[in-house]
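Dear colleague,

Following up on yesterday's call, I've attached the two folding results inline so they're easy to grep. Please treat them as preliminary; we haven't cross-checked anything against experimental data yet. The first protein's sequence and structure tokens come first.
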Amino acid sequence: MLGMDRKKTDVFFAWLFRAVSLVSALALGAILLFVLIQGSAPFLFPTAPEIRIVTERVGEIEVNGQAYRDHAGFIAVPESASSVSLRFTGKGGERTPSFTVENGKPPVFTGYDGGKLASPEAFVYTLSYPGAVAGLEQKVHVIMPEPAYGVGAFLFGLDWRPTYNKVYGILPMIVGTVLVALGAVLLGMPVGLLCGVFLAEFLSEKPAAILRSGIEILAGIPSVVYGFFGLLVIVPWVKRVFQVPSGNGMVSAILVLAVMILPTVIVISETSLRAVPQSCREASLALGATRMQTAWCAVLPHAHSGVIAGVILGISRAVGETMAVILVAGNSSQLPRGPLDSVRTLTATIALEMGYAQGRHGEMLFSIGITLFALILGLNGFILSLRRRVER
């Protein structure tokens, strides 16, 4: 009877684990598919299938002969329309502006005598006329659809001006992300590896356990705390040492990220080194090697898989870090010309602008997320391929 109960329990949990795994896989797949759709839309489709007209303080308007009275929202005009004529009444009489559209070129406005034409944003044109009361102008906004954006202009463009000129070049952010991440890894990885070797091979068990607990606590500290530390300590130090107007820049970001990845690298390296069989150490010492030679020439090569895993995790955290970088990097979307220049990373761009991004701007932030994902995969793939070459 007891055996039957155990069998039923095992079957129940087996199906439960399968169901949970299936739901988790479907959820992750749905999230990934949503990001891919949102991120690829700007390069495949225009922002709208038609020209949109929005009015302010215009009670009744005719668009190509069709009347709209107290219209809420926008008035859609097919993009194929080569000309659009407007007619409405305002202070001083009837107004009859019109505009023509040809081959995706900016519209040409005519007949707006007494009004002012402005282009507050790219693809947006505003006709303003004096209203019945001063300060309450009649306005007609013509919003042209933005064409599909080029992948090359996105990846290799040098300007990021999404709210005015509708320019979305992320090359400065890619360069800033790669330089900051590689600088942090090159600075933090050797220190973390040395600390891991020291804890695993040269320190007795009790002091090593105490230090290990402290390092694990450091690994759990929120990134905003590291960023706040960098803002109050590292940024003023960089400003004072290098005699620059502002310490917010690439050097500060590299130092903060190097400190942040240290606990992860140390813990993983030490765990990998301790997993090496004791017989490997004994054989090396029996051949006359010193403890240092044993650690570097016998133990470390056996633990290279774990060490490389620590490198990959360190790179992933450095590339994907957001809050700490925002606080210390300066966040200037320009190509850095030196290590003390202000930089902006891909993750910082998403965090800073997602709160107010709309339309294509928001979709481009999803495209940045896809680029970030591809960048992490590329860096990790490069490290794994390098490991395979070394093993040969």
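Below is the second protein, in the same order (sequence, then structure):
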Amino acid sequence: MHTQLKFVGRLFALLPILALAGCNMVVMSPSGDIAAQQRDLIVVATVLMLLIIVPVIFLTLFFAWRYRRSNTEARYDPEWHHSTRLEVIIWSAPLAIIIALGAVTWISTHKLDPYRPLDRLDAERPIPAEAKPLTVEVVALDWKWLFFYPDYGIATVNEMAAPVDVPINFKITASSVMNSFYVPALAGMIYAMPGMETKLHAVINKEGEYDGFSANYSGDGFSHMRFKFHGLEQAGFDEWIARVKGQGTALNRDAYLKLEKPSSKEPVRYYASVENGLYNAVLNMCATPGKMCMSEMMHVDLMGGGGRESHENRNRLEYDSRHNVESSPGATFPASGEPARTQEPREGIDGQPPSEPQSMNHDMNNMHQGHSGPDSNQGGPAPSQLNNDTPAPPASQP
């Protein structure tokens, strides 16, 4: 019986180790230099704190055992009240650790500032003088990610790619509520906020497919607000650009407004061309016709305000009512399954009722029938890109 109890006890001791088998350790094993430096900071900070935590835990257990009531050999001194040697150890060790931890954190905080341009590809390679960074403009929508590539004139939904060992300059904003852009293998998360632009500089050092997602709760479709990040060699990245241009449609203002409507589990979409100034219109919250851009409003404020005639601008400044319950359909397709909040019929991202989701999800037959060119489907979103194995035409230059 005693042997069986010991065996069961050992099994229970292994349970925490078995639970770790389902963990994704990408944060501690990243593929980008910025994420690797952040991992090193976590390791160094943890080790420095363990230098005091482990001895304290050990001594706590040791003193409890050493001065237990049944140990009559332990020295009993009820009049003891002070030891200079112990005071020096108790105060100097934690103080030294705090100084070291503070210095490491202060240096790393400035070195890993997401707004700071990169100065190296990895620990052994500086950035070549002729290297040209890749600019990616990111928009957090409800509940999907829109990526603009201004150097190539394309855009994608829920998929992005970047060449290996090429610095990436992210410009990040949101269309409605605050989100958080996060690719654990690439770099730390940074917030996406409407009417504001945050920045992130990063580089991917290994080929692979990595997960990206929103790390800030933003509503019903938050858990499905995910995308794939592809780290590719330059040739593979050129093929990816060519595939987007060959299979994508056009992203104009009307198509964006339909894409902006809340939807979850959004498929990958390609846009071979993008209307000029669309990202800036999203950033300035004036993608909707008739809205005043924030840059224009700030200029009016800078000039001292608009006076009495400024009351005419009131309707042009009501940004927060775009998804108001009383002015918008309650749910969109694909929907969360919750009943609509209004009596109006539900509509999808392409304006069709949910019974006709052709533009949202393409079956396998449609998938093999090819995709329209960039001059077609001007008024709607791009078709979902479920088959990414289609041979790409020769890569084109931006």
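For the second protein, one point worth flagging: The helical segments are 2-19, 33-66, 84-111, 234-247, 253-260, 278-283, 294-302, 364-367.

Best wishes,
A.L.
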